[in-house]
Amino acid sequence: MGDFIKGLFGGSKPTPSKAPIVEDDFADYASAPSPSPIYNPSASSSTVASFPNSSSLPTPVPYTKWYRVWERASPSDFAAEAVIIPFIFVLAVLHIWGRRKNKRKANMWTAVHAPILDREFASVGFGVDGKARSEGGEGAVLKEKAANEFTTYTTGRQNVAFVDFKIKLLKRYNPLSLILETIISFFFESMRAPQERLEATAYAFDGREKDLVPVRSKAELDAKESRFKGLPNSGYDACVWAVVHKEQMKSLRDERYDVSLTATKDHKNLPQWASVMSESAEITEALLTKELAGAVDKAGDAFEYLIVSDQPIDKPTKLNETNPSKRITLSLRLPSSTHPTAYAPTLPLFELFIRLPDILVATAHFRPEVTRKLRTIREEEMKKLKKADEGEKAEERRLEAEKKKKEMRDTRLKGLSAEEQRKFLEKEREKGQKKQEKRMSRKA
User: What is the value of pTM for the model shown?
Assistant: First the structure.
């Protein structure tokens, strides 16, 4: 107010305020000029000429390459995709081709062997009619367990309860896994090289037809008993006997417990690359016929092994695992060709395998000395298992007794005072020292 009055009467003018002091850290910002819009006369004139009412025009979008892919990208930016997409496409094609190839090969095996199975068995495969038709019947016969494994099943024959067939093929649908397994098999003997093979296992009735054949009513049970009364006994003496390709001998001894009980010998009727594994020479003379030796020779490299056994494949650890289960196992390598004539060398051996239970029932009845020897071998193995089982039970009883003794000691300590607990622990320590001194003196 005073300054105002002084101004009216010619007083001193107010001193102008000093400019604010700008610190050095913000000097660049203080001296920078404020931005001003850039005028483009050509753009404004063209806009006005195009749109008379310029007040309603939208704000122009600045030029950018983001919306133009052909300007902001080049083929070199897609180098990874150019490698990955064809690789995935090739894997997908190989997968589809491999699965179809395996199915064609399994169906070809069925078409070749279906007439034999239909002739020998009443029921073949998983079809409703129980017949393996060579035309269009493969789907009912085979069941695809995996892309490289197919199975089938037959039953309805004298002396044979049922037969399981397992076809194992290469993993053509997964070439990376196939290559890896092949490489590993070169460095580790325990890892077998990938091989296409047929594994067939026939389970014998062994005089138990009444127990194994199912019935659904009382009438079927009566009919079954009357039908089995007139049949001859289907039992035969238990034994372990095999004809093996010499390349498979070592792996079979390592993998199968039953074959490890046998002794290996060459036979004059067999080719040089095959050998006999038997518990007795009399078993070999009874089972190795000229027809069987000729079929093995004709099969050639496709033959792997033929085993007659009543012992488990895996080494038993308990007595109940030693129960005999009589069966016959055949392993054949499948040919690389899918033509039906490629199976001609193995067909005689396959037919003989189907009829081998009949041969066992007729000839596998040995002298009492041989039977006694076979029984002794099995009893010795059972004694070992029984001894090991008793040792395990004794150890369990000892641990149980120690556990109860410790519980009684803890219960007794809880009821004592502090001084009584100290005296009790001192006595325990003294007893432990005396026992240790006695052990040391016995060792000395």
Answer: 0.71
